[in-house]
Amino acid sequence: MTWHTLQAVYIIWRRDMVRWWRDKARIISALTFPVIFLVVFGNGLSGAMGPLVETAGTGPASVGGMAVDYKQFIFPGVIAMNIFFASIFSGISVVFDREFGILKEVLVAPVSRGAVALGKTLGGASVATVQGTLVLLIAPLAGVELTLGMVLRLWPLMFIGAFAMTSMGVALGSRMKSVEGFQAVNQFIAFPMIFLSGAFFPMRGLPTWMEIIVKVNPASYAVDPLRRTVLEAQGLPAFVLNRLAEFGLGLELFGRPLEVWHDVLIVLGFGIVMNALAMYLFSRGE
Predict the structure, then answer these.
(1) Which of 133, 134, 195, 235 has the smallest C-beta neighbourhood within 10 Å, fewest atoms?
(2) DSSP labels for 108-154?
(3) Alpha-carbon gap, residue 226 to 75, rounded angstroms
């Protein structure tokens, strides 16, 4: 990749970041929607679900008075939801640019169209990562304690998940001709991927057909490391984490439990394939 191409990627990335920063309503909604979802959905089901982990003779598993309840369980799912919606929806900027003629001006510039696709993907992934970071501000509402180590481990996981989903969104946007069409396809794809990723329910005792969908859904492998990182950073003893594993913390593939790095490789591989597809679709021209 030449220096000229890297400059093109940077300029496109910077444009998306500046557009997001200037759109204050988008920034506010990136924080308020997770708050509403966590407060309404989390509190509404916490009473019905009760503590997720109970140990015989000791009551709810807790450390320092902090029980492992449903709000703590879905908090990483809320982070993932915010990232996924922002990532896939970033493809709509491609459709907007096409409708207003901006994309045509970009594509006739003396840069490779693959650089355009990569710049759009990195810009959307960066925006989605920032929006996922904003969700960390509401961690106290879920009873989750923030630590610097946890945040530093979450950032690369969030970016890799955002990169994969943004690549898919840009690939979709590269072929869509109208904003309305993209929104319809986005809802058809994004909502099932998020709600069938285990973000909001434990992956235990699922019907066979749903378990198969969860396993083939790439979003599942982005949610799992986020949840494991958040819960493991709460200072829970080993026996509580083991019980959470029995409850559904951690994915299994072909009968073998996956480590975090397995999840990362799967998500990264999906992202590379989707980004290559986006580059190819951009190269086919308008």
Answers:
(1) 235
(2) TSSS-HHHHHHHHHHHHHHHHHHHHHHHGGGGGGGTPPP-HHHHHHH
(3) 9
pLDDT number for residue 69: 73
Number of CB atoms found within 10 A of residue 56's CB: 5
Of residues 282 and 34, more confidence is placed in 34
Nearest to 127 by CA among 86, 155, 165, 157: 86
- Cα(278)–Cα(286) distance, rounded to whole angstroms? 13
Tell me the C-alpha distance between 85 and 51, whole Å.
29
Average pLDDT of every residue of the chain:
80
pLDDT single digits (tens) 168-189: 988 888 888 777 778 788 788 8
Tell me whether residue 30 is exposed, middle or buried, using C-beta atoms within 10 angstroms of its C-beta: 0 to 12, 13 to 18, 19 or more. buried
Greatest Cα pair distance, the chain, in angstroms, is 70
Q: Could you report the per-residue pLDDT of 18-27, keeping only the tens digit for each?
A: 988 888 888 8
Confidence of residue 83 (pLDDT cuts 50, 70, 90): very high
Structure tokens at 188: 């058809």
Q: Label residue 128 left, alpha or beta by phi (over 0 means left) and psi (-120 to 50 means alpha).
A: alpha
Q: Transcribe the chain into DSSP letters.
A: --HHHHHHHHHHHHHHHHHHHH-HHHHHHHHHHHHHIIIIIIHHHHHHH--S-EETTTEE-EETTEE--HHHHHHHHHHHHHHHHHHHHTTHHHHHHHHTTHHHHHHTSSS-HHHHHHHHHHHHHHHHHHHHHHHGGGGGGGTPPP-HHHHHHHHHHHHHHHHHHHHHHHHHHTT---HHHHHHHHHHHHHHHHHTTTSSS-SSS--HHHHHHHHH-TTHHHHHHHHHHHHHTTT--HHHHHHHHHHT-S-EETTEEPPHHHHHHHHHHHHHHHHHHHHHHHHT--
